[in-house]
Amino acid sequence: MALKIKHLLGLKDVCKEDIITILDKADEFRKILDSDNLNVKDLAGKTIVNLFYENSTRTRISFELAEKRLSANPVNFSPSVSAISKGESLKDTVQNIEAMKINMIVVRHAASGVPKFLTEFSDSVIINAGDGFNEHPTQALLDIMTIRQKFGRLEGVNVAIIGDILHSRVARSNVWGMRTLGMNVTLCGPSTLMPQHDELLGVKTTTDIYKAIENADVVMLLRMQLERQDSGLFPSMREYRQLYGLDCEKIERMKPDAIIMHPGPINRSMEIASEIADCNRSVILDQVTNGVATRMAVLSLLNS
Ligand code: CP
Predict the structure, then answer these.
(1) How far is CA 188 from CA 47, 59, 270, in A?
(2) Ligand 1 atom 5: the closest Cα is on which residue?
(3) Rounded to two decimals, what is the model's pTM?
(4) Are 45 and 102 part of one and the same domain?
(5) Domain housing 141
(6) Is cis: bond before 265, omega within 30 of 0?
(7) Which CATH number do you get for residue 30?
């Protein structure tokens, strides 16, 4: 089934039908990947440029793997060895790459709105791999896929997202997607790291981690995004860990069947105790595995 969207810029404006279509396709690809059948030709002859202006391990590698699994030709762009160092603009860079005849661009950038900006002059399909504080839609899709795998449903599932919400594009995409799917989201963190405006209206917020986790089916921890923060947003790392870090004492207050998620990269002993990250309730590596299937689904469906 074709999607209504032409690009994946974020989940804010993606309808429920499109999200479910992507999740169902991702489940199909996960089965194919688990069977070691890598002979999928959906993107044979297509060229995809991975334009990563910000560092990445999971997103970049899983997009490249997804493209290869779909028989596409991936090209990886590295700003540090590109003509950006000679003063070339983003628009000129993209227009020159497009002149070489490509089909899709996967873009990560520190500035919010860059993927949308590319759609204004580019003929390629644009996929957002994370833009500033704004959105990280494929991360949210793989998170939601993982939750559906674990619980067999989405509607009514209670999700607590804990940490640096203010600077988190992962939190924003998850809020938009989960609200569309009828899931219940509670955002939790120090008041200085919570959005102060009404952009996330419709979800519960609390500064008390115990209130956030006690009814949660899913507890999702977020990394402290120090690279995006002004100083002085919380007193100290030690205090943050004591109040908001998920440890053996706090996990006792969670529902017995609740799962633990994290988009990565994790900071062990900060937002999550090392033994919790590795415990059998943690699905962090399942999220990573599902990342390849989710990105295959997005690439394949946007190509059709
Ligand atoms: N979750 C995530 O976006 O990780 P990377 O920064 O490693 O891609």
Answers:
(1) 41, 25, 16
(2) 56
(3) 0.96
(4) yes
(5) 137-283
(6) yes
(7) 3.40.50.1370
Residue 1 has pLDDT above 80, yes or no: no
Give the model confidence (pLDDT) of 187-202 as tens digits: 999 998 998 766 666 7
Q: Cα 108 to chain center, whole Å?
A: 11
- Point out the ligand 1 atom lying closest to the alpha carbon of residue 55: 6
282, 287, 288, 291: CA torsion to nearest 10? 180
Given a contact cutoff of 8 angstroms between Cβ atoms, the answer to whether 72 and 47 are in contact is yes
* Ligand 1 environment, Cβ below 6 A: 56-60, 130, 136, 139, 263-265
| 126 plus 149 within the same structural domain | no
Residues 239 and 178 in one domain: yes
> What's the total number of domains in the chain?
2
Q: Within a domain: residue 5?
A: no
**Ligand 1 atom at minimal distance to the Cα of residue 129:** 3
Q: Is residue 54 a contact partner of residue 109, using CB atoms and an 8 Å limit?
A: yes
Paired residues of 260 in beta bridges: 219, 282
Region at 45 (left for phi over 0; alpha for psi -120 to 50; beta for the rest): left
Where are the alpha helices (H) located in 48-157, listed in sequence order? 58-69, 90-98, 114-119, 137-151
Phi then psi dihedrals of residue 164, to 5 deg: -85, 75
